Amino acid sequence: MHVRRLGELEAEIMDRLWAWQRPATVREIVDDINRGRRVAYTTVMTVADILHRKGWLRREKAGRAWLYEPVRSREEYTAGLMRDALGDSQDRPAALLRFVEVISDEDMDALDAALRAARGDHDPHLGGGSGA
Amino acid sequence: MNVNHHVLVPLGLVVLTGFLVPWLLVRARWAQQAPRLALGVWAACGAAFAAATALLPAQLVLSSASSHRLADMMFAFELPTVEQLLGLDGRERFALALSLAVLSMPAAAFVRRLARARRVRVRHAGVLRLVGRYDPALRATVLDDERPAVYCLPGRSRRVVVSSGAVDALTPAQLAAALAHERAHIAGRHHLLVAASEAFAAVFSRLPLARHGEGSVPLLLEMAADDRALRRCTRDALATALYALASGRAPRSAFAAGGPSAALRMRRILTPHSAGHPVLRGLMTIAAAGLAMTPLIVACCSFPG
What we know:
Helix content of chain A is 54%, strand content 12%. Chain A is an alpha+beta fold. Chain A has 2 domains: 2-70, Arc Repressor Mutant, subunit A, CATH 1.10.10.10; 98-127. In chain A, helix 1 packs across helix 3 (41-53) and helix 2 (26-34) crosses helix 3 (41-53). The termini of chain A are far apart. Chain B is mainly alpha-helical. Chain B has one domain (5-301). Chain B is built from 13 helices and 4 strands. In chain B, strands 1-2-4-3 form a 4-stranded mixed sheet, sandwiched between helices. The model of chain B is unreliable at 251-259 (pLDDT under 50). Strand 4 of chain A pairs antiparallel with strand 3 of chain B, so a sheet runs across the interface.
């Protein structure tokens, strides 16, 4: 349970820093989270430090506090996940199971024909209302 | 010639499960109509082949008497007791070590594949946790990207993922169908069979069982997941979801070989229940293959010692 809370807090911190698009201190993050629910300053500080060590955040000293900033944008991370999701990286074990694999032009034509044939034969409503 | 005739049984099994049944299975039309049965046959062939290749060298090494006892235990599906294992003589121990060494090759490849896939998944899930948004209504994680994609992470970090592009492109019924398909993958632990077929292909690359299995198993798994999804959605929803997701991405002929054919799946979803009794035909094929072993077993048992 505790571990899961920390995980959620990681996402909350990243969400804010990505949304703000500027470096921020732990104090700013804590204040923003506290508008919704109570969270201790030290907890956020610890989790921000974890994110820094994991390579998600970079930080620099500003006076006495650290200013945290995402290393990469949300879009960059998403693009990496989509590469896995779309099967662009070929030589890796089947880690994910995809609904549709990469598809060829010929397969696409066959798919088209199959769908059209089925609609014509079985269900005229879907083919654009041409009637049986 | 002093070759032990008990070698015949594992040898027969190797030929049957490694060559004959895969050859039949890849040509059988019932396989795609009863994908779960076909997957069961592939899995059984893999297990039997691995066991037979492990027994083969043991039977060659053993004395006639002990190899006869081993054959008896095999027919009775009997595992040796601890006492029996402790009381093995030198030659029997050597045979056992040989068997385990042979068996460890596909087993190690399987475990390596699973571990590697798991590492990829853990990394993927770690990023997903921070980048994606869990949608309780969909019971899936939504990833902000225009390109339509629906996939799942099986195993311990299990979850279904949809891109926002897929949510936009699909109707609620289509989305539900695609999600049901992915949940079927997770519930059926399909990643284990994928890993097993990949491991077999890596270890026994020339073997028909491995070659055909690597091609057939992923497609059959997709079909099995389609069937399971169809319990909760209409044929039209699943077929059009497949079409919408396939057409929403750039086709690439270069990678076309290999991947499970969406067109085959679609035709299958849209044309339910072809004539005949696929399951019955499947069972008959399996029974026929089993019968093919009988002469070998009879030969083996009628020349004791």
